[in-house]
Amino acid sequence: MKKIWIALTLVLFILGCGTQNENLAKGKELIKSDKRRKEERAVREFKLALQQKTDSAEAHYLLGLYNSQEFYEPNTTDWEDASVTERGKHMFRAYQAEKRKYLERLVFETLRDDDLDIQNAALDALKRVYNQADQKQLLSQLQKAIKSSDNRDRHNAHWVFGHLGKDDPDTIVPILVKLLEHRRTETRLNAVKALGEAGSEAAIPALATLIESGAASSERDREEPEVRQLAVEALGKIGGNAVPELVKIVENKGSSLRVDAIRTLAVLGDAKVVEPLLDALKEQSNRDVVVPLN
Amino acid sequence: MIQKIKRFDERQCLPLILPVLVLIILTIGCGNQYYDERMQMRVQKLDSDLMNRWSMSGVVVTEITPNGPADKARLESGELISYVITEYPVKTVGDFNDGMKNGLDEDNNLVLYLKDKSPLRIALRRRGDDVGLSVEGSGTVRVKEVKPGTPAANSNIQVGDIVEKIVDERKIYSLDDYKKILAKLSKRQITFRTTELIGVKIAAVSALGDLGDVRAIEPLIDIFNNSTELSLRKASITSLQRLVELSDLNELFQQFQNTNVDQLPTDGLQAQQVESAAILGLLTVDLTENTATLEAPFGTQFRHRSEALYEKINEGQLAELAQQYIQIAVEPEQEIRRACLTILGILKPVSAIDALATVLDNSAEIPGIRFQAGLTLSQIGEPAVDALIAAFESGDTSTKDIAASALGGIGGAKARDRLIQALENTTEPAIQLTLVDAIAKIGDASSMQALERQRAQYQADEDSGIRIFLDEVFKNLEQKAM
Lengths: 294, 482
Prior knowledge:
The structure holds two protein chains of two kinds.
Chain A: H1 2-32, H2 38-50, H3 57-66, H4 77-81, H5 84-97, H6 99-108, H7 116-132, H8 135-146, H9 151-167, H10 169-179, H11 185-198, H12 204-212, H13 225-238, H14 242-251, H15 258-268, H16 274-282, E1 287-291
Chain B: H1 2-10, H2 14-32, E1 33-36, E2 41-45, H3 50-54, E3 59-64, H4 69-72, E4 80-89, H5 93-104, E5 109-114, E6 120-123, E7 133-136, E8 141-146, E9 162-171, H6 175-184, E10 190-195, H7 198-211, H8 217-226, H9 230-247, H10 250-259, E11 263-265, H11 271-279, E12 283-286, E13 291-294, H12 298-313, H13 317-324, H14 334-347, H15 353-360, H16 367-380, H17 385-394, H18 397-410, H19 413-425, H20 429-442, H21 445-458, H22 465-481
Antiparallel strand pairs in B: 1-2, 2-3, 3-4, 4-9, 4-10, 5-6, 5-9, 7-8, 8-9, 11-13, 12-13
Helix pairs in contact in B: 7-9, 8-9, 9-12, 9-14, 10-12, 13-14, 14-16, 15-16, 16-18, 17-18, 18-20, 19-20, 19-21, 20-22, 21-22
């Protein structure tokens, strides 16, 4: 008797599994196929898969990935559900169901997608992770990405860092500043870019130190020119209290970044920079100066 | 190094890191800067990649002690010393040998001055190579022998040439170079050759054009008039042009400034100015919301500066400057002539009419610029009509062509009547077409009647270019009327 029960449960379970994944499997099959309007049809399957309650992480993730407003009439419910924010929510739900797997997937896979909407949806999901779930884990994954040997990961991580930094500079800026010491030039480069995009004035001293390192006597202490150049750009993005720092570069006759600083300042349009620029114009031209013997 | 400090910090060994920190700051300070006791000035090492990016080398003067030798020689803070030069006058064979030895030291390179010859640069491939030159005499030192196959033999030196002096130009790559050469020449008179950081100036000039600040005008004019550096002159006239273009939008910006807002309804603003400002990226227009919004940061800041800029630019100085440089005989650089014409087109000074007519009629000028001069005259408008009519009457075919379309652009009874009269008296097809086009542009009743008369006259001629063109003109007008 007991055996029959076990067998029956097993059969039901297997059947259950079958029906559970049927829509999902169908949708995935469609994506792989070369059928007409396959994404649209697959999305329909994923939505049905969601109705079966259990084990919907993948369905959520796939909806985040493939649902698109292009499929629907504007201002309908479906159209609104396919917005970047809604897709971000789906991705976040996938993360909630299977945290480790989908966090890694979002950072190292979804962000790499060519579709801007998908990138933005992933960003939205990651922001949700940051604000509502495991901030620490996310930051550790992002740091792993920005230190990666793959440029795509570094670039994507800087982008996310920049956005997170805009909302929460107190946490993000110190992390990025610490990354300025990383041994990989490209990592430092992306950290600098992220600091610019975060736009927080808290980053100014660190960027200034980095820029000034160009005149350090030991080569070891000198930051690469391209990183320093980007640091000037970052100061420009920060604006505000970064203006005096940029003016200082213009006034430093030995700096190789004067041109970059001048161009950055021109865009900021601040009248405070007119005087230093006029001073730069007064500098002497090529000439010979004879110093007689005393 | 930064990493090291951080690590200590983490272990909280403050008493230990403080002296280390002081030491580090001291070494950095020493490494970057150097106070030259003899010259009484401070020099600084160049940024490491200034040399790579701008091909510059040397040390920068950062501070000059008043009344010291550097100050007396009028060296200035901010100058980049790229060469230290010293001269060895040659009066005896000993002078010559000393000069050669010192001059070739380190860089294997010197400049030899022979009487009645241009300076000769002598370079050795390896240290200690034979220059191949010997001299004789006292008071007047002459070349005694030139050994074949040596650098001297390749330098057009003849036996009997009089050696006047040896000049050693030492290129400075680092602070160490500077210290070493100055120590070596401690008892000699020296010359510093400084290099202009031209890239910085060009960037500053362009930035000043973008900032739209009145204080930039005089210095830019000064550079344009006096710089020997063509790239700098081009940059400064381009910046002046930009400032004139910005000032031309003053009326628009004053509407924002007077109400002290950054957003206004578009329909209350002058459409053409809004369009120009949008092209320059100073504001964005939202037609559905009927708003024109100044773009931050520049647009919003510029409204405060616009009035002062406008006044200064319309004082007349700039119009006068631009007039001076539109003739090809005065200014060979066409980019500059074009910029000046653009400036005149905006400022519309009546005083420029004659000069513009000369450009228009100058067959040595490139067609594009002659045409631009015509356009500028039509921008000046009514006062330029007489000059254009005169140019039309006396000029070559190109002049006639340009003058006619400029007159069409201006319009008015006088221009119109002259154009119609010309059309009725010319048989030159190229001019006919321009005239028809110009008259159609004026487009009033008399113009249209004149064109009708022309059409009737050429009705019979199937292949007449002017008839086809007239048909086209009328068809376009009908379409417009519909």
